[in-house]
Amino acid sequence: MSDAFEITEQCSGNRFHCEPGQSVLKAMEQQGLKCVPVGCRGGGCGFCKVTVLSGDYECGKMSRVHVPPESRACGEVLACRIYPLSDLTIECRPREVAETATQQTTTKSMR
Predict the structure, then answer these.
(1) The whole model's pTM is what?
(2) Which of 80, 67, 68 shows the shortest CA–CA distance to 23?
(3) Which of 44, 85, 92, 103 could be a cystine partner for 35, CB 3.0 to 4.6 Å?
(4) Which GO terms describe its molecular function (predicted)?
(5) Residue 44 and residue 85: Cα distance in Å, rounded?
(6) pLDDT 10s digits, 3-26
(7) Domain 5-91, CATH homologous superfamily name and number
(8) What are the tens digits of pLDDT across the range 29-72?
(9) Cα 32 from chain centroid?
(10) Phi, psi (rounded to 5 degrees) for 10
(11) E strands, 1-103, where?
(12) CB under 8 Å to 96, separation ≥6 — which residues?
C-alpha cells in the first residue's frame, strides 16, 4: 500500500487510504467508514459532497446543480468523483445538512 494516499477527515479525525485512480468515496466504503451519505455514486445526486481543505486531486464529471463552478473553486466536490493525487484533508458535511438536502431533492422531484 506504499503508493496509496492518506485521506484525513478533519472533523472526526478518521484516516483512511485511497489507491491511485480510486475515488475517495469508494475508499471510504471499502474501509467501512460512513463519513458522508451515499446516493448514485456517479456524480449526479450530490449526497456525498465534501470540502477538500488541502491536497491535490482530479475530478470526474459532477452535476453542476449540486457543485456549481464557484463551489468547486472553493474545494466543494463530490467524494464519488474525486481521485487523489496526494494526501488529502477533507471535511464532510454534517449529516443533518445532508439529510435536509436529500429531503429538498425528494420534494422537488415529486412536483
Answers:
(1) 0.81
(2) 80
(3) 92
(4) iron-sulfur cluster binding
(5) 23
(6) 899 999 999 999 999 999 999 999
(7) Beta-grasp domain (3.10.20.30)
(8) 999 988 899 999 999 999 999 999 999 999 999 999 999 999 99
(9) 15
(10) -60, -45
(11) 5-9, 15-18, 49-54, 57-59, 76-78, 82-84, 88-92
(12) none
Here the cell at position 35 is 463519513
Q: Order of strands, edge to edge, in the sheet holding 88-92?
A: 15-18, 5-9, 88-92, 49-54, 76-78
Closest-CA residue to 91 (of 52, 54, 56):
52
pLDDT at 61: 93
The predicted structure's pLDDT at residue 95? 54
What gap in Å lies between CA 52 and CA 49, rounded to an integer?
Answer: 10
For strand 82-84 and strand 57-59, is the pairing parallel, antiparallel, or unpaired? antiparallel
The arithmetic mean of pLDDT across residues 67-93, rounded, is 95
